[in-house]
Write a structure and sequence with these properties.
Elements (H helix, E strand, L loop, with lengths): L2 H11 L3 H8 L8 H24 L3 E9 L2 E3 L6 E9 L8 E3 L3 E4 L3 E9 L18 H16 L2 H19 L8
Antiparallel strand pairs: 1-6, 2-5, 3-6, 4-5
Helix pairs in contact: 1-2, 1-3, 1-4, 2-3, 3-4, 4-5
Length: about 180
């Protein structure tokens, strides 16, 4: 899922077709500084929103092949790990581990690590680490439109978008076996 597509959708929801056009344009010299600034603000808001979302509601999870015999250094992982969930050996059997400050101690050689991570700061053209199966781009666009409306001082619109965003996040993050009473 590309950051630019989420921002475009949020811009259109917010009545800011100029930002959507700015993102699509190959030559941006004809756009105002205000449009460029608003687009950059949306990129910043998207990063803040994703950071909150991955730490509070829908974690980003990576599965990575890595070979280690006694410990895994955090800097050897491709993403910024915040919690190690599982470690497997070459045969798919879970490996016992202990988390330390600088590394993870493992009880036997491992081949795969599953962990929660905090994403990098995304640029407009980056793909974000969420996939549509994790959360839809439309839900993210509603959240971004809500945040942007707050910065514009449009509290009624912000509440409307926020309600849609929260409804989408709760529908996704609700346990699969939960029942409604």
């Amino acid at each position: 899922m590309r950051a630019s597509k989420i921002i475009q959708e949020a811009a259109l929801l917010s009545g800011r077709g100029d930002i959507a056009d700015y993102i699509e344009a190959t030559d941006r010299t004809n756009f105002s500084k205000e449009t460029s600034k608003a687009c950059n603000q949306m990129v910043t808001l998207l990063n803040m929103m994703i950071s909150e979302l991955c730490t509070s509601f829908i974690p980003m999870i990576a599965t990575e092949k890595i070979y280690a015999t006694d410990k895994i250094e955090y800097d050897k992982l491709s993403k910024n790990a915040v919690e190690i969930l599982k470690i497997y050996d070459a045969f798919g059997k879970e490996v016992d581990f202990k988390v330390d400050y600088e590394h993870v101690k493992i009880s036997s050689p491992c081949a795969k690590v599953v962990y929660k991570f905090h994403p990098k700061t995304y640029a407009l053209t980056d793909n974000i680490d969420y996939e549509e199966k994790d959360i839809s781009g439309s839900v993210l666009a509603y959240g971004l439109a809500a945040e942007f409306a707050l910065t514009e001082g449009d509290f009624d619109r912000a509440c409307s978008f926020h309600d849609r965003y929260v409804e989408g996040v709760h529908a996704i993050s609700k346990p699969k076996n939960s029942t409604v009473k």
